[in-house]
Amino acid sequence: MQIKVLNYSHHTKNLILFFSGIGGNESLFNHLILETSTSLIFIHNYIDLNFYGDLSHWDEIYKLSNGKNTSLLAWSMGVGIANYFVKELDFLNLDTKIAINGTKQAINLQNGIPPKIFNFTLKNIDSAAFYHNVLESTPSSNIKLNTTNELKQELAFIYPLLLNSPAYNDLWDLAIISQNDKIFPPQAQISSWQTNAKTYHILSLPHFIFSAFSSWQDILYLRS
Fold first, then answer.
1. CATH number of 2-223
2. Within its chain, how far is the Cα of 31 from the centroid?
3. Which of 41, 93, 135, 220 has its CA 20 to 30 A from that of 63?
4. pLDDT of 26-43, one tens digit each?
């Protein structure tokens, strides 16, 4: 897992822990403003469960979150990854947990991406087609697209890790569901979050909702 810490200072009051999705590198989110009062831990590139980048283990995340209002945001397959790490995340005393276009079980016939569809995607994925389905538009030139091989590497690692993984009993505060999501079936998301979230909102946005927002704080405001 690639981990980057943005805008960290002992003086920042808030911390966002963000689990991105497959192929969800940092360039996709560069347009989002990060307020001076907020730090962000950006996690992506799920080729294994090791820490690469600015941090090397969970203890460092605990130290960074000490004394801060800490929010968990997870998008797409990052929701399943966050669910996998539920015991580690419990120690953070999270103030808010928001899931965006994903489910805790992730790869599941009823409550996620059906295993046969996920396996078909793994074998046949094409980078350009994948990002078009995620964004529902042609990516701008300032976005760095992961290659087809890089996407396959992530999918191949995640498939056995999350296949029919249990939905742990932690309750999320909010789930955001895009009604025309081309990656995670909306009905599977609704089925999952009816019992796993305090509430859920259905939006008329693509799988990648972030283009509709200008800051990370705007996304946190969805909880209110």
1. 3.40.50.1820
2. 17
3. 220
4. 999 999 999 999 999 999
